[in-house]
């Protein structure tokens, strides 16, 4: 039987411990889901949150546990004699190797009991530990299973160990740490699932929209949605975002977007134009500078659908997930780059200012 040593009951199933387990699982689930979802939808802040959240939680957990660790360190351990019933060295890669001990501990103020421990012992000192040998040990008063062999005891205890002979106790009189139970593990898993589900639900629109935009451009039908677009224009840039169900490859969408960006502007010179499925971004050429800009209306926008379809159909990317068109003249001449990404890899092509293909690269 297991003897009663007055140990405190397990704390893993208290309400506070269960709440802490639920919170820990929630942080882990949220962090993992944020990393995965942030990578899929290309959301930088969400991905960064997935990296930072466990670090912040770990720091807070460490700080919150400092008072408890201070109280535990302030508890004076009990000292007792113990007899080595048996020992077994485990192979290690340093001078200190782990040794598994089975001890009979004989406290001065309580019944003797057995305990199994593992402790690192230096190879030079290993011959000093042998079966039936008596050693000095210490343990917390409320946790008698946390026994540690004192390698350098005080002269008084060293003399007692050298002159004492202890009797073995039955193997059934074993003291061990209380089992954690299944409730703590259950709430950790529950918290993990809840945290992951919360992230997926919050960003489900972005995830589902990716499925809608994964169709080949040739299969996208002209949109008849009346959902309005969002236009943001400043002195240095302009952005137009379409609502769900619309695409800049649909007839007339680019013209309407350009009208909303250039309305009321004195100059329509651009440094860069980037077109995606539902997002148009323009960076304007700063006034009074000799930057390599170009007329915003000079691009062959009517050729954009054909360029995307050519990159999709002829370069090996038959099931594109995303596509992007970038136009600039940073190298001197106006260049239009088309990049299509699919399950087969990434395919690209370059066209000149008239929309004629001048270079292509198959999916890799």
Characterise this structure:
The longest helix has 27 residues, at 15-41. The protein has helices at residues 15-41, 44-64, 66-74, 155-163, 182-202, 204-212, 253-262, 304-314; strands spanning 78-89, 96-106, 113-122, 134-139, 148-149, 230-233, 237-241, 269-276, 279-284, 294-295, 320-328, 335-342, 345-351, 357-361. It is 32% helix and 26% strand. Strand 8 (269-276) and strand 9 form a beta hairpin. With 364 residues, it is of the alpha+beta class.
How do the strands and helices of this protein lay out in sequence?
Elements: H1 15-41, H2 44-64, H3 66-74, E1 78-89, E2 96-106, E3 113-122, E4 134-139, E5 148-149, H4 155-163, H5 182-202, H6 204-212, E6 230-233, E7 237-241, H7 253-262, E8 269-276, E9 279-284, E10 294-295, H8 304-314, E11 320-328, E12 335-342, E13 345-351, E14 357-361
Antiparallel strand pairs: 1-2, 1-4, 2-3, 4-5, 6-7, 7-9, 8-9, 8-10, 8-11, 11-12, 12-13, 13-14
């Amino acid at each position: 039987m297991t003897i009663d040593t007055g140990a405190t009951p397990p704390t893993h199933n208290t309400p506070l411990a269960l709440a802490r387990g639920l919170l820990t699982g929630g942080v882990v689930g949220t962090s993992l889901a944020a990393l995965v979802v942030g990578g899929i939808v290309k959301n930088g802040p969400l991905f960064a949150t997935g990296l930072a959240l466990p670090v912040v939680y770990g720091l807070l957990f460490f700080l919150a546990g400092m008072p408890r660790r201070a109280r535990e360190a302030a508890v004076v351990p009990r000292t007792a004699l113990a007899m080595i019933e048996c020992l077994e060295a485990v192979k290690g890669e340093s001078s200190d190797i782990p040794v598994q001990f089975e001890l009979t501990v004989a406290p001065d103020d309580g019944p003797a009991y057995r305990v199994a421990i593992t402790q690192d012992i230096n190879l030079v000192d290993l011959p000093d530990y042998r079966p039936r040998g008596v050693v000095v040990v210490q343990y917390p008063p409320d946790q008698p299973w946390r026994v540690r062999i004192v390698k350098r005891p005080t002269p008084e205890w060293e003399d007692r160990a050298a002159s004492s002979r202890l009797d073995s106790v039955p193997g059934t009189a074993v003291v061990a740490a209380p089992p954690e139970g299944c409730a703590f593990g259950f709430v950790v898993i529950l918290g993990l699932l809840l945290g992951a589900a919360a992230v997926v639900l919050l960003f489900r629109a972005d995830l589902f929209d990716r499925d809608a935009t994964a169709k080949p451009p040739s299969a996208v039908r002209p949109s008849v949605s009346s959902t309005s677009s969002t236009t943001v224009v400043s002195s240095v840039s302009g952005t137009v975002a379409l609502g769900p169900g619309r695409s800049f490859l649909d007839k007339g969408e680019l013209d309407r977007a350009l009208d909303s960006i250039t309305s009321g502007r004195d100059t329509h010179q651009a440094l860069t134009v980037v077109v995606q499925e539902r997002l148009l971004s323009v960076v304007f050429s700063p006034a009074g500078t000799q930057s390599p800009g170009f007329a915003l209306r000079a691009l062959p926008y009517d050729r954009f659908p054909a360029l995307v379809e050519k990159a999709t159909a002829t370069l090996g990317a038959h099931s594109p997930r995303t596509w992007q068109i970038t136009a600039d003249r940073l190298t001197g001449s106006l260049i239009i780059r088309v990049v299509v990404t699919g399950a087969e890899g990434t395919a690209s092509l370059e066209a000149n200012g008239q929309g004629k293909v001048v270079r292509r690269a198959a999916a890799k």
